[in-house]
Amino acid sequence: MAMSRDMKERIWVTKFDDGSLKEFYSDFMNMEHDPSVQIIPIVVTSYGGSLDNLNAMRDIIKSSEKPVSVTAIGKAMSAGLALLVSGTKGLRFVAPGTSLMLHEASSGAMGKVEEIVSYTKHLDELNKLFIKNMAEDMGRTESWLRKEISKRNNADWFMTAEEAVEIGLADAIGVPRTYTSPPQQVIAVDVKEKKALRRKKA
């Protein structure tokens, strides 16, 4: 299964296909209407997938009346990274060894010329929405994000957990053990503290 609610009440996201979206919606609504759940915790470990399904998951998260914590472990690439940053600010975590990657929408569309032209227009609109949402969730401008992607020749942008925190994709490095607000018992590394320690050692 691409996603599941485990014994510790976490929603796991590994894919962005139609089946995964259906399970995500079901699990999320169960937690949304469960009075014992104060913060909805999501764990993402994914290479990415459908932008349409990513947008649907983001819409579900943003419509929630409860805070939503998202933790990236293992890998959070493309749609996976976008899902991480869509969580509630202050509750977005990334495990230190996670592989993170951002890139614009891409496609290997084939078919009739008219079909390719039509799909290309659709993909362009999806990409504009992807950039808009990412920038908004990061607390950045669309022009800033486009400039950063352009600086890398529009290639896959790989980054460390520290870099993800620095640019606003996550709030802390670590894996939360509980989900209270503010979060307690978090195995996390504060980026500023780490830099200060390095300066002292130097």
Mind explaining what this structure looks like?
With 202 residues, this protein is of the alpha/beta class. The protein has one domain (11-201): 2-enoyl-CoA Hydratase, Chain A, domain 1 (Alpha-Beta Complex), CATH 3.90.226.10. 44% of the residues lie in helices and 19% in strands. The protein has 7 helices and 8 strands, in the order βαβαβαββααβαββα. Helix 1 (18-32) packs parallel to helix 2 and helix 2 (51-63) runs parallel beside helix 3. The longest helix is centred in the middle third of the chain and has 26 residues, at 113-138. Residues 1-8, 181-185 and 187-198 have low confidence and may be disordered.
Key words describing this protein structure:
disordered N terminus, 8 strands, single chain, globular, 2-enoyl-CoA Hydratase, Chain A, domain 1, alpha/beta, eight-stranded mixed beta sheet, 202 residues
Helix and strand element order: EHEHEHEEHHEHEEH
Structural domains: how many = 1
Main β-sheet: number of strands, strand sense, barrel status? 8 strands, mixed
Q: Mean pLDDT, rounded to whole units?
A: 83
Number of helices: 7
CATH topology: 2-enoyl-CoA Hydratase, Chain A, domain 1
Give the total of beta strands: 8
- The proportion of residues in beta strands is 15-25%
Structural class comes to: alpha/beta
Overall CATH architecture: Alpha-Beta Complex
The rounded Rg comes to 18 Å
List segments where confidence is low: pLDDT < 50 over at least 5 consecutive residues.
1-8, 181-185, 187-198
Q: Identify the overall geometry.
A: globular
Helix content: 40-55%
User: What do we call the CATH homologous superfamily?
Assistant: 2-enoyl-CoA Hydratase, Chain A, domain 1
- By CATH reckoning, the class would read Alpha Beta
Q: What would you call the quaternary organization?
A: single chain
